Amino acid sequence: MTLVCFTNPWGFVDNSRDERNMLKSWREGLVFFGFAGRFRFFRDVILKGSLGKYFLPETSDDNGMGYLMRQADREVSGREQRMSQEDFSQERPDFLQLCLEARMDGKPLTAMQKRAHVTLLIQAGADTTGTALGSTIRFLLTHPAVFARVRAELAAAADAKLLSTPIQFEETRAHLPYFVACIKESLRLHPPATNLFGRVAPSPDGKVVDGTWVPAGAEITSNSYVVQRDPHLYAPDPEVYRPERWLEDEGNSKEHISEMDASAFVFGVGPRVCLGKDLAIMELYKLLPETFRQFDFDMKEEGEFVVVGGIAYNERHLVATAKLIPETTIISVYNTVLQVTGTMDYSLQNHRSFIGSKVTDLPTPSFVLSLPTIKKNIERLHQDVEKAGVTLRPHVKTLKSLEVTRLMLGNGKYKRVVASTLSEIRGLLPLAEEGILEEVLYGLPPPASTIHLLEDLRKSTNVQLMIDHEKQLIIVEKFVAKNTESTIKPWDIYIKLDVGSKRAGLPLDSDRLTKLIQHVNNSSAVTLKGFYCHAGHSYGCRTPQEVEDLLTVEINSVLSAAKLVTGDRKLTLSVGATPTAHVVGTLKAAIPENVTLELHAGNFPTNDLQQVATSVIGAEDQAIRVLSEVCSVYPERNEALINAGTIALSKEAGPDPGYGKVVGKPDWAVVRMSQEHGILGEVQTPGSKTTEPERRDVEANFDVGDKMFLNVQHACITAAAFYVYYVVDENDVVVDTWVPWKGW
User: Fold this and answer.
1) What pLDDT was estimated at residue 336?
2) Is the separation of the CB atoms in 663 and 672 below 8 Å?
3) Which residue range or ranges hold the D-serine dehydratase-like domain (predicted)?
4) What is the end-to-end Cα distance of the chain in Å, rounded?
5) By C-alpha distance, which of 740, 651, 669 is closest to 710?
6) Whole-angstrom Cα distance, residue 570 to residue 595?
7) Cβ 377 vs Cβ 623: under 8 Å
8) Are the C-beta atoms of 654 and 615 separated by less than 8 Å?
9) What is the pLDDT of residue 578?
10) Is 533 marked as a binding-site residue?
């Protein structure tokens, strides 16, 4: 729908998730939507009075109707800015373009009218057709006789060579009458929009409707959920799903069927019928028959149809196994998204079906995130950054997900990040489109083969480069010289310093650093933005004082590098690693006026055993756990086998023994691993004085089938192995799932 409305699709279907939290915000705003749209007293008296400020949504809201209004404003302002350019052209008009070009009495729409129309485009198009798809599939799979007849009709039409691949709209109408009846019956019983907007009787005389006088000013509305259960029209079984009622050859008169069609209020009627009606029907008539032609189904979970604020949606998943000869696949309808994919791991393909489940019901191994802990860790760093008077540039490499990046940025309070892969930058683009993100620093000295790809991404947001060698600069200069289009503008670059990690960067006393700065100053292909250093060796610190000392080294290094730049050029000096970020609140350095000091860190929302070992955080600040399961127990060697090995945990080590530590059992850890095998063994935790025999006996602690949580040594490496994160609340109930960006 976003393709039709805004030309550029937002990725709901491609990414199989609620992009930008649009559906969530829409549903959170439905109560307000229902009251404001259906109750004139609330709309005209309460909202316009002194109480309105307590009810009206604001565009600064992080969710709900206000958030959708902000997205609508962003779409409008972005298109109007493009329209103001001389070379603007819209090859195929979309709904947004038609809205902006519309005229009322020769005048363009007001800003409020534009917002209202575009917000409605986002709302109505995003959810209602998905609800219809889900409801139809639910009805078919819960009525075996109907399902069998649908399959038989499809097979007969295919044998007669009446159907294309994929099935076309007109073919469904002409050759699949029973399937059409099934769709109509689904829309009758489960209309996506149940309560249509009211109409006000005109002044001064009112209106006579069907022999009944309606006084002037009276507001009349209709409820399709009720109308389409009229016992006079759908007798004798208005509450029953019976598609046959729509077929002439089942004993129904053509006149009666026409009357039912005329009474179908699901899309509204008259001059204000839903603009997307024809598109929605086309989607239903094309997608559903093709899906049921290719797949055989077995219902697992029905889901639930709910109505809020006059709008209906599928509150929980509809989940079914679907067999496609010769492969087996999974099809799931979650709210509005129909997913049909190839053979894949059950936990990945149906991850959202676990929302509402206890964490121990998850498949193993699973990657579990504590949302309260993540929010607490992020809020603490935000407070420390404010106290220190510096700004923040989060690194997205740990969880590589839109959801946690939004939290790290404070939903736009901070507008710059570091990314380590092109995949991460691509995943960040929705935040750039929203205006939440303005700068992305590519955190690796750029390989020559990636410059053209980074340039493509730079068209969507300000991608910056990090260099530590003169030849990298020469590569950029050659690229700019070769691509002479006006769109190629100088690159913002940071020069990387090595402050002791010996990973990347130039030492402060290197002659090559001075030479590189001079080359940058003389180059028309780049602009020096600042200096960047990363104290990766801070992970080896064991006390807060050691970490504070390294933060001081970082700051002194970038300040010294800034002095090598002539003049009072404004520079950004970027320091940090997660350990040093944890002590930024102790910062007391004097910062010159021409310098902006920023902190970068990536692991701070999650933390891990390596972070705990630095003593700047506690074990309770770890937001990551890996859920694993005991596969076997070996009392003769006092060990157990679990299904989390090198792939699930990584072979990262730390001061605490083992590759993963059993939560609640401090003397047990993963002591050996192969690819999928993890061996639990007894370890001596520093400071532990355990002597109780039962705490050291494997059979007293673990049994086959037991599930346990593991704290991990390095969150970034562990997270990279998983394709979905299960997000839990303070009660260990799954409240969301996050899908990370994969690849490079």
Assistant:
1) 34
2) no
3) 623-729
4) 29
5) 669
6) 6
7) yes
8) no
9) 79
10) no
Tell me which of 2.102.10.10, 3.40.30.10, 3.40.50.2300, 2.40.37.20 is the CATH number of domain 619-713: 2.40.37.20
Angle subtended by helix axes 177-189 and 277-294, to nearest 10 = 120
Q: Of 445, 508, 453, 442, give the one whose Cα is nearest residue 472.
A: 445
Q: Are 530 and 573 in contact (CB under 8 A)?
A: yes
Alpha carbons 320 and 331: distance in angstroms, whole number: 6
DSSP summary character for residue 436: S
Cis amide leading into 236 (omega within 30): yes
Token digits for 408? Answer: 């790290």
Give me the sign of the Cα torsion angle 45, 46, 51, 57: negative
* Coil, helix or strand at residue 329: strand
Residue 48 neighbours by CB distance under 10 Å = 10
d(CA 535, CA 651) in angstroms, rounded, equals: 22
Helices marked H in 295-401 — which ranges?
346-349, 371-388
- Torsion (CA) 136, 139, 140, 142 in degrees, nearest 10: 150
What is the rounded CA–CA span in Å between residue 403 and residue 441? 19
Q: Are 477 and 501 in contact (CB under 8 A)?
A: no
The torsion angles phi and psi of 714, rounded to 5 degrees, stand at -135, 105
- Domain 2-344 superfamily per CATH: Cytochrome P450 (1.10.630.10)
Intervals of the chain under pLDDT 70: 13-17, 38-43, 46-47, 91, 123-126, 196-197, 309-310, 312-350, 484-487, 588-589, 685-695
pTM (global) more than 0.70 = no
Distance CA 558, CA 572 (A): 9
**How does 168-190 read in b/e, with b if 16+ C-beta sit within 10 Å?**
beebbeebbbbbbbbbbbbbbbb
Angstrom distance (rounded) from CA 38 to CA 45: 13
The DSSP-derived string for 621-690 is G--EEEEEEEEEEETTTTEEEES--HHHH-S---SSSSSEEETT-TTEEEEEE-SS-EEEEE---TT---
User: Residue 327's beta-bridge partner residues?
Assistant: 324
Q: Structure tokens of 31?
A: 């109560």
Q: Indicate where the chain has its CATH 1.10.630.10 domain(s).
A: 2-344
CB half-sphere exposure, 40, CA atoms < 13 A: 10
pLDDT of the residue at 332 = 43
* Cβ atoms of 425 and 463 closer than 8 Å: yes
Element (H, E) at 103: strand 103-104
Identify the pLDDT of residue 711.
Answer: 96
Q: Which two tokens stand for residue 171?
A: 């073919």
CATH code given to domain 370-608: 3.20.20.10
* Residues present in the chain in total: 744
